[in-house]
């Protein structure tokens, strides 16, 4: 027994020796590299609010998402150098104001004084005195009254302010075109009696040095005017001095028709539109904007008749300047010449 144990050795020791024998470790599992993320050159981390605060990068919901780019601010409207701020872009012009567009109403006037025909003629029977003369048209009979230094009241009534020096003069007329009016001798004005400053301008409280009122009214069989049916035209004027002589300068003409007061105004360009004898290709008859339609719209207050109604409707939303003189536009008045009764 002793020999076996001594000669064969300890079998457990031999087994333990086999366990302590070293072996190479297994290779590590392969590592799959992560895909490289492209860097967006337009995205930068914002600066930290405080020096020692960590940086915060924006977190997006999924790869490839970027926040929308903010829209640019609209340009500044108004003065570029407003108090307390600096200009922040181009200054846009203010939109043109809305311009009222109206249509003219046809009014029948029974008497008309041609304002370009008012003249002062010397009174040969009374040296130093001058008589008023003019031409007029009338479709009805009526009367003409000459006032010196008159003031207009309600209902187009005229009140003389110097009746003690020059009393009003009334002369009746019959219907007819191209009639001539002349003051009777001895009823004229003597300019040496008045101050020159009173003659050359409209006085205080709207007193005009000269006013002529022409009343037209239908008459019955006895040629007596019928009350309540009359209309009138009033011509108000001042005197002007040219080479030492006084002349008449008409300031305004007023119509009184059916209890309504209208002020007559000249229209520039209406002559070409009303002339039937003009050639169709004649310039000055068409609208200055479209160059095709006839002109029928007046610009106020400059009173240029230069556009058709269609172009005028478009113009009032785009600009407030007259196409002819570039003055500001207050109203547009459409007139149908010769097409409507």
Short description:
This protein has 341 residues and is mainly beta. It has helices at 2-8, 11-19, 196-199, 270-274, 309-315, and strands spanning 100-103, 111-113, 119-122, 130-138, 142-152, 158-160, 169-173, 176-182, 207-216, 231-242, 245-257, 260-264, 297-300, 304-307, 331-334. Strands 5, 6, 7, 9, 10, 11 and 12 form a seven-stranded antiparallel beta sheet that branches. It has a four-stranded mixed beta sheet with strand order 1-15-13-14. Strands 2, 3, 4 and 8 form a four-stranded antiparallel beta sheet that branches.
Explain how this protein is built.
The chain has 341 residues and is mainly beta. Among the domains are: 111-264; 270-334, Zinc/RING finger domain, C3HC4 (zinc finger) (Herpes Virus-1). It has 5 helices and 15 strands. It has helices at 2-8, 11-19, 196-199, 270-274, 309-315; strands spanning 100-103, 111-113, 119-122, 130-138, 142-152, 158-160, 169-173, 176-182, 207-216, 231-242, 245-257, 260-264, 297-300, 304-307, 331-334. The strands form 3 sheets. Strands 5, 6, 7, 9, 10, 11 and 12 form a 7-stranded antiparallel beta sheet that branches. Strands 1-15-13-14 form a 4-stranded mixed beta sheet. Strands 2, 3, 4 and 8 form a 4-stranded antiparallel beta sheet that branches. A hairpin with a 2-residue loop joins β11 and β12 (260-264). The relative contact order is 0.11. Residues 1-34 are annotated as: Disordered. Residues 24-33 have a biased composition (Pro residues).
